[in-house]
Amino acid sequence: MLLGHKIILDYTVGLDKIYDRAEIEKKKLEPEFEREYAGKYLSRIGNIFSSSQIDECQQLGLEFSTDKIPVSLYNLKSVGIDPGFSSSGTGIVVLEHIKTEDNKHMIRVVDCHLIEKGDPNKITEILWDVWVKYGYMNVAYYIDGSNRAMVNLLKIRWQESLSWESNESFGSNVKIRPVNFSTEHKNMLSNLHAIISKGYLAIEEKHDKLLTSLRTAYAEELNLKKDVTSYSDLLDALRLSLKGYNIE
Fold first, then answer.
1. How many other CB atoms sit within 10 Å of the CB of residue 103?
2. What range does the domain containing 72 cover?
3. Which of 2, 42, 72, 122 sees the fewest Cβ atoms within 10 Å?
């Protein structure tokens, strides 16, 4: 007896056959495209961010792409880390603060990673590489303090004290900054919504999983419903990374 094997055929198979290229380009602008044409079975469309808001993030990502404007060693980079436990992934989002020619503040995503059941030592090396890449300067890390073992591993690598609490204030010399996610998660989601609503967040199209997470983000009374939000680890990392900036 032969068992059935599911084969997923995306739109590229039927391009110029049953799909017209011009029509596909129009469909790519629709939030349902990834699910209906690219074979990605995503969660339902979320209720936190509108399609127009996310489209604006992408447009800003194109305008302020790292290809057009290289990352500066002198701008503040803020790294959000949502460390996974044995059954979940680890999300990492790296942001940079820049100022536009008309003196407007802008925050752009310069890198992100989603690591499924990652080795803590490998995750530490990825984060250390970010530190090295930007010249050992102007980088701060915000991490969910509930994973104390991961925080301590980073603290050891950065030669920082292991006597810490996630509700304390950190001086500029402290790079690994634990956050009490359980008490701050609502405020962080509200802050993310405000940043996007005001047009301060730029996300390039290549960070497609992060964009998908925003499109599917669903919450009730500012409680993110992770069971219906795709790539929620990345969204949590994005929320954490915004702790590095205070933009009104």
1. 6
2. 44-244
3. 2
Q: Which of 227, 128, 242, 228 is nearest to 194 (CA)?
A: 242
205 in a domain, yes or no?
Answer: yes
Does a structural domain hold residue 36?
A: no
Cα–Cα distance between 202 and 188 in angstroms, integer?
18
Q: Which CATH number does the domain housing residue 55 bear?
A: 3.30.420.280
How many structural domains comprise the chain?
1
Which tops the pLDDT comparison, 126 or 15? 126
Residue 8 belongs to some domain of the structure? no
The type of residue at 86 is S
Reference 106, options 171, 56, 50, 49; nearest CA is 56
Residue range 155-196, pLDDT digits in tens: 999 999 999 988 778 888 999 999 999 999 999 999 999 999
State both tokens at 45: 């469309």
Which residue type sits at 146? S
Residue 34 lies in a domain: no
| Dist CA 142 CA 164 (whole Å) | 13
Q: Looking up tokens 């808001």, which residue turns up?
A: 53
In the beta sheet, which residues pair with residue 79? 94, 141
- How far, in Å, CA of 18 to CA of 50, rounded? 31
Is the Cβ–Cβ distance between 241 and 76 less than 8 Å? no
Q: Do 46 and 217 form a contact (C-beta atoms < 8 A)?
A: yes
Half-sphere exposure of 186 (CA within 13 A, CB side): 5
